[in-house]
Every structure is written in C-alpha cells, then in structure tokens.
Amino acid sequence: MIEVRNLVKQYGDHYAVNDISFTIEKGRIYGFLGPNGAGKTTTMNIMTGYIGLTSGQVIVNGHDIQEEPYEAKSCIGYLPEHPPVYGDMTPLEYVTFAAELKNIPAAEREESIKKAMELTKIVDVQDRLIKNLSKGYRQRVGFAQAILGFPEVIILDEPTVGLDPRQIHEMRELIRSLGKDHTVILSSHILSEVQDVCDHIIIIHKGKLIAQGTPEELENQMRGAAMELTLKSDDPEKVGAILSAIPGAKNVTCHPAKNGEVMAELEPESKTLDLREAVFGACAAAGCPLLMMKPSSISLESVFLELIADTGAEKEINAAGAEKPEEAEPEQSPEAPETEEKGGDTE
Amino acid sequence: MKAVYKRELESYFNTMTGYVFIAIVSAFIGLYFVLYNLRMGHPYFAAALASTIAVFIFAVPVLTMKSFAEERKTKTDQMLLTYPVSVPSIVLGKFFAMMTVYLIPMLIGCLCPLVIRIVGTGSLVIDYSTILLYLLLGAFFISIGMFVSALTDSQVIAAVVTMAALLVIVIWDAITNYIPETPVASLIGFIVIFFLAAFIIYRTTRCWTAPALIAIFGLVASVACYFLAEDWFQGALGKLLAALSIYGTINNFITYYTFDVKGLLIIVCFIILFVYLTIQAVQRRRWN
Question: Which of A45, A88, A102 shows the shortest C-beta gap to B14?
Fold first, then answer.
C-alpha cells in the first residue's frame, strides 16, 4: 500500500528523518509513536507530499509521491497536526470546498459530504464560522476533510490532541471503525492510545526507526518478569533474607508498609524463569504469610521512555527480529495514565 | 483551479478585505471623476483614472497580502499541497480571484465615460482603452503582490514590501533619469545586474555552477563590450532600464494617446514572470 524506502530529510546539518524504511499494508491501523520532535510529523508530511525529501522514496499505491503526486495524493486523506481549516468558512462550506478540491464526482459529492460530517458529528455546527468553533470541533472538521470520499489511506497526525476524554473515546471508536476497510496511520506520543487502537506500532526516535511490530510483539519485547510481593511480617530484613535465598532471585528490595506488612520486589535471573512457586514455597516454609504476588507494573510510558533512552544510541530493534533489547524492565498491560496536551512536535 | 478560485473569491467577501478594497478604489475613482470631469470639465475620464494611481499603490497590497502569507500562517497550505491539485492551479486560482475583485471597481468606473458622453463630448475609445490598460496594470500589480506574499508568512511585511515595490514601479522614470550616462557607469551597472542575478539564482537553487557561469559570462561580456563598443555603452544602462518602465507605457497612452505595443508586451511578460515566480516560491518552500 505504502512503501517508505530509506527516507532521509535533512535541514542543514540536522537530520529530521534519518534513513527510515517501512511498509504499510492494506486494511490495518498503524501507529507512529515517538516523543516530541522525533520526526513523526516530518515523516507524515513527506508521505503526503507536503514537503520534499532529501533522499529515499515514498510509494503510495504504486505511485511515487514525487514523480506522480496527483495519483498518489488522490489515495490519501491527511489530517495534519494543526487542522488546516479556514476560519472564515463554515464547516459545510469547508467540507464542500474539500470535496471539490478532491475531485469527487458531482453525483456522489453531496452524499459523501453528508457521510463525512455525520461520522465526525459536526452536523449541528455546520453553519457556524470555523473560527468561532472550539479546538475539539475544529479538529473534527479537519478530520471530516481527511475522511471525505473515503480515500484508501487515512493519515492522522495526533488526532486526539486537544479533545476532551469523551471526544477522545469517540475519535478512537471512529478510527477503529475506519480501520476495518481502510488503511489508517496515526501518530501519537501517548503509548496507551497507540496500543489501544493500532494493529502495528512503529516507534521513531530522533529521526530513526527504533522498533516496530504488533503491540503483542512489542509488549513481549518490553516485558520483564519482575514481581511485587506483599508479605505479613514486621521485619523487612528477615523477609529480604528469605527472598534472597531463593535460587534464581536477584535485586531483592524490601520496605515496610503499614499494618505490619512488608512490600518486596524481586527479579528472576532470566526472563524465562518462573519464580512464583519458589517464592510461595519459601514464604510458606519461613512462616511468613504471602498476601499478594503480582508481576510488576510500571507505566507503559516509562517503558517507552526507557526504550528510547536506551536505543537512542543508533540501535535498531525489530520485534520480529532476533535481537532483543537489554532492558528487563517489567511491564504489564494496564492502561497507562493518560497525559494529554503535551504540546505538539516541534520539527 | 475552479475550487480554489471560488473559495478565494468567497473569502474576500466573507471578510472585510474585498469590500474595503472595492469601496476605497471606487470612492477615489468617483472623487477624481467628479473633480476632473464634472467640475473642471476635462473631456477624458482617462485623466481622472490616471490621477488615482496612488490609491492603487496602497489598495492592491491590501488585496494581495493575505493570498499566500495567511495560508502559511494558519497552515491551511498543508491542505492545498496534500490534495490532488497542482501548485500552478492553486496560484492561478488565487490570481484570478484577486483579478475578479479588482475588476469590480473598474466595472463601476466604466459608467463614468458614459456620464461624460451624456453631459458633453468625450472619447469612449480612449476612456475604455485606458480602463483596459488599468486592468492590465492591476494584473501586473497583483502578480507582484502575490509573489511577495508567497515569500513571507507575515501579511504586514507582504503589504509593506509590495507597497514599496509598486511605488518604485510608478516613479521608475524619475529614477532612471538620474542614472549617469558615462560608459563606465553602464559597465558597472551591467556587472552589478549580472552579479545580482547570479546571487538570486544561487539563493534559490543553492547550486554553484549556473550562477558562477552567469557571473563570469556577465563580467567577461560587459568588459569585452566596453572595450569593443564603447559608443554603444554611452547611456546604455539608462536606456535599458527606461525601456522596462511599465508605468511609462500606461502614462504614454493617457498623455499622448500612443499605443505602445512593445511596452504592453513587456507588461504581459512581467505578469507571466511573476506568476511563474510565485509558483516556484510555493514549490521551493516544500524543499526547505
């Protein structure tokens, strides 16, 4: 569907995008993940033909975006980071303008305008000036423009920024439903969002592709096997001794909690080692009741931060490939706390 | 092109810009018409229209300043450039939209010769030809304003630079009169022009070979001509620059009723050049 080959975008000495290659297949939802300034927006701007590239190739549906821009752009609907809406128009005028610009045949025009506006729920504000609309509505008007005529590829740059939680939920539902028969590419710096919606995640950092794969593949790659325990005991040191004595356990830490309980954490020496039974046995033998045992959960965002901090040093990891990352930061899959409105990319 | 044209035209009338432009230009045309033709009894509307040139210097930049600068500021250019439309059709759509707004006060002005005809004797041919010439001049002014607007994302800068450029065009003859006539002055002038051209090409293309060749060719050719044909260099720079006088062409017609085909062709060429440069400026932005 879309093939990006050795894409490089250079501004002076600065590489905004540095040798990125990936393939987008039909009918899946892709997520671009990366911190601000990672190169997500630049990559999307190049894929949609907004800006030129220094070297490399982008092929959309068999058409090179540089050589055959008309054909390539016809297959793409793009919602940039700042919705490209004209303040002096109403949403209806704007979407009609977009339909004319997209050369949607006159016979289908009205129908597709109506459909796009209904899906994005902007019908009630269709006669107000866009400049008087709230950020959320403007975002939706921009979204309506992108899905208008249902192009084969829909590219969304941070589609949920500036929306309230309910709107974010609706937006994700909409993206999911679009993903059933379209290719959707969205970017985000919110890991949970990408994980929630996307079939395939591409992590970009400092202009380089550092990891890609399905959420499960990435999760396995990032998951460690550390666990958190709560035990009934007054003496953290004693608990520490019991746990340290378990063969294969390392990095044991204990600290007292209230009500005569001790919280402990430990890691197995290798990821494949399952220590649960050994821990249970050791605690029971020592007469130290085990109140809780669970795999450590740290937020997905911090795992992600860890990953980009570690792999910033020019290392490429492919989840499908053989190489595994060194960090054994454990991870479960709860929803990470959502941190909206971190501000846009600055590239 | 049609969609861009329609949107652009609507936007002039959704905001105040279109109305302000039409109101100011027609008001001044009407004022001069009353003063010159109705009060002072001048038989030609052409004279009244010629007196309004200062209004165009200030009004046309107001019309053109937002054409590309605003799109860039509000990032709506991101929509146009990622849609299946070519840059030339975007530029032409905007150009024709501005021409349409410009046309409206001119059409109102078309009534004036008829009024003169009713109350006295005038020449419809001369008056309507002048109006046509002012349409051409307007197209030229708009093409410059549009080009300047494509270079910046600040509407204020676009307006001020366009005003300065239009002012220079109108007082061009006065400036070229003061160019020294000695061959040496022409030699220096030509070399400066070639180096300036080379510099601009270098700035736009970031490529060394073509500008270097132009600069070397200019230097060699100018110096060679200077030694081989010194007579020809006498006042050559002044003559060349005077030949490019655009406002002079219009003024000649209004004052002496001479139809200067060469001058008209130069204006048309400049309009095409600036439309082309606007296309290039928009294209180039994508590569920086």
Answer: A88
